[in-house]
Each structure stands twice: as C-alpha cells, then as structure tokens.
Amino acid sequence: MRYPGTVSDLSLRPRRLRRTPAIRRMVQEIQLSPADLIHPIFVHEGRDVTEIRTMPGVQRHTFESAVEQAQQAQALGIPAVILFGIPDHKDAGGSQAYAQEGVIQQATRAIKATAPDLAVIADTCLCEYTDHGHCGHLVQDAGQWTVDNDSSLELLARTAVSQADAGADLIAPSAMMDGQITAIRRALDAAGHAQVPVMSYAVKYASAYYGPFREAAGSAPSVGDRATYQMNPAGGYREALHEAALDAEQGADFLMVKPALAYLDVLRQLRDHFDLPLVAYNVSGEYSLVKAAAQAGYMDERRTVLETLGAMKRAGADTILTYHALDAARWMKEG
C-alpha cells in the first residue's frame, strides 16, 4: 500500500517496528494471557493417576489429583477448568452421567470446596458413560444403529441438572443433538439454576482430530460413527452459521468451534456474525501432533504452542480450551 506524500519506497520501512523486543510488544495486536485459557481435566474413579499414551503429559486423574490440577490452574491465573468423567461402570443409557455421585459430580464438589473462585465447567454428554460410546440413546432404524435424538434430550437435561446441583458453574453440552440447548435451558431453569450459563459446542465437526481423546476417555463408538449428528468436515459456512444461530436462539451463553486449528476460517465467520463469547477448542489431535513433533526434535514446542494459540485468538476466540493450558500459562508468565 502506498500513502500520499511518501518520498520513496525506501521511506516505507516496516522493520522499524520490529527492531527491538520492546517495540514489538508495543505494536502487537494479539495479546495472550492465562485468563484466555480453559484447562481440561480427565477424572476417573481409580486410585492412581494414569498416563494417556496418545496424549503425552496428560493424565487420567483421581479426585485428589484433579483438585491439585485445579489449584495449579488457578495459581497460574487460568480462570476455569472443564471436567471429563471416566466412570467404572457404563451402560446403554449412560446412567453415571446424571448420577448424583457420578464422576464429574464428585470431582466438581471436591474442586469447589478447595477453589471456590475457580469456574468449573462440566462437559455434558453421554459418550463417556454409555457402553456403546455414542452421545445419546442408541436404537435400530431399518437395520441400522442410530442415535435417537429426542429421547436423548431428556438424558442430557438430567445430566446438566445433576452437574449444576453438584456446583458446576457452567454447563457445556457437546452431544450435537437437535434442540439440546432448549431442553437443557428449560431443565436448568426449572431446577432453580437459571443463573448457570450454557457453553454450547455449537459447531462441532465429525473430525479425525479427536482420536487421542477417544482413547483417553474410552469413548470410541462400538458400532457406526458420529457422522449423523456431528457436522460434516467438508461442510461450508452455511451449516456452521445455521447451527450457531439455532443455539444462540435457544439460549446458549457461549458458542464453541471444535476443532479449532483446521477451522479458523469458521471461527472467524462466527466472530463476524455473533456477539456471544466465542470458545476455540484446541483438541487432542492438535495437541498430540505438536507433542510428537517436539519430542522428535522437529519443532520448538513453546513457540509452536503460543503461535497456535495466538492464531486462534486472532481468528476471534475470546477463550481457548487447550491441553497446553498449564504449560502455556507458565510460558506467558515467563514472558
């Protein structure tokens, strides 16, 4: 771009604003801080912390170690954690998802007892709790297994209420059932939880990037796949904007795009069309790719992670849910 009144091309020197670290900090547009992050925690009912093979550095936590993780996050300035539960018992209806003594319910109470100012987000889905690994009530239709949408709504609503009863500050429905925000909002309001926000996984794709998570949570479908309810990765902006608009109309307080990195253009579209707070989910596959490359010596982990999170922020995210959260917060504090 040429500006009126310039003497010559050599008078246009963008490098002046890159000359020192202090100047670069003065003019940078993207400001990352620990307050931008959500730290995910896997919680199981076992007595030991166990490593997750596909996600180096991430563990399945006991209730006690989940509390320690939450305290670490709070000490680093991270305002929220999100809990994913892994029960000992699974059944066709995912009953441990809405049990009063379910994994997330117990973990929520333990964390709120020791870190009351930390926001606890409850992932609200059934896939980790069903013996078939799907996100709702599985039925046969014309000889094919499929998730029945409307009967699943009641189970998701019961799950949300039980999580709010346990003290969850936000409910995060991720099942991608039609009408789930309406069902959950009505159930929360009727149960006296009108002030509990809903963080909707509004735009969630049937993505290959979820592979490591499914091993971590033991939630891979035993039959079929999730393509009938999660979004088509080859879909365009119209589907994404339609899904987000439906959730916003039904009362969602946050909108989320999942995965984030391969869908930054979709994230930008939502930012341009909606005023609700926007969450980017930096998913397990994105995390594991960076970890594997860093361990092989192919990439600088710190620089790669911060650059990636910065890209999500630039695309329009207000908040980033990332498995890198603790490390990233430490790096930010180190400057």
From TrEMBL:
GO BP term, pick one: protoporphyrinogen IX biosynthetic process
The keyword Zinc is annotated on this UniProt entry: yes
E.C. number: 4.2.1.24
Reactions listed under catalytic activity: 2 5-aminolevulinate = porphobilinogen + 2 H2O + H(+)
Binding positions for Mg(2+) per the UniProt entry: 243
Record: residues binding 5-aminolevulinate 2: 284, 323
Keyword Lyase on entry: yes
SMART domains: ALAD
Pathway the protein takes part in: Porphyrin-containing compound metabolism; protoporphyrin-IX biosynthesis; coproporphyrinogen-III from 5-aminolevulinate: step 1/4
Source taxon at top rank: Bacteria
Sites where the protein binds Zn(2+): 125, 127, 135
Assigned protein family: Belongs to the ALAD family.
Family matches, as PANTHER family: DELTA-AMINOLEVULINIC ACID DEHYDRATASE
Protein name, UniProt field: Delta-aminolevulinic acid dehydratase
Protein species of origin: Deinococcus radiophilus
